[in-house]
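Hi team,

As requested, here is the filled-out complex form for the fe (ii) ion run. I kept the field names the same as last time so the parser does not choke. Let me know if anything looks off before we queue the next batch.

— J.
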Amino acid sequence: MATTRTRAKSNGKLAYTVPGLDPSDSAKVVAILQQRLNALNDLALTLKHVHWNVVGPNFIAVHTMLDPQVDGVRLMVDELAERIATLGASPCGTPGALVAARTWDDYRLVREDAIAHMGALDVVYQGIITDHRAAIEATDEPDPVTQDLLIKQSGELELYHWFVRAHIETPSGALVTSGSKTETAGAGRARVSR
Ligand SMILES: [Fe+2]
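And here is what came back:
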């Protein structure tokens, strides 16, 4: 007999939170943290997907560059989830809930030239880092402790983004993917530049 599975949802009701933080502010911070958790869980999976699917002359450089990024992003996911729990809420890490809550498309490239993947990942990191910075702004007043965590993570994410961008940067300092709004466009411009 088929079993019915219900999708896990983050519990927004807080029975308690950290001392000195208003429970309604805490609930707002939890919602922000849950979206960052979803985004970085998605990023960790996407980076592994690229690690497996790069081909071409830059294979080994990109393949070996990505695993430390996966490890670093997974640690960030753990920090976000445990901050949610510390605030008295329940972090949600199931795949179904992630897909239901996300506002972005699945990564589209599969087996592809390493430089095309770098063009697509440039666009992915732009979205992640822009949203992390928005979360920094949004947590400034209610919870500087959460904001501090997001600031530290943003610094690491920006470093990883530079590693990606260095593959698609010209000697004059321009990005060959400049102006790309989608992963497909970024990949296309990076591919043509070679
Ligand atoms: Fe591997």
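Two things worth flagging: The chain has six helices and two strands. The chain has a mean pLDDT of 93.

Thanks,
J.
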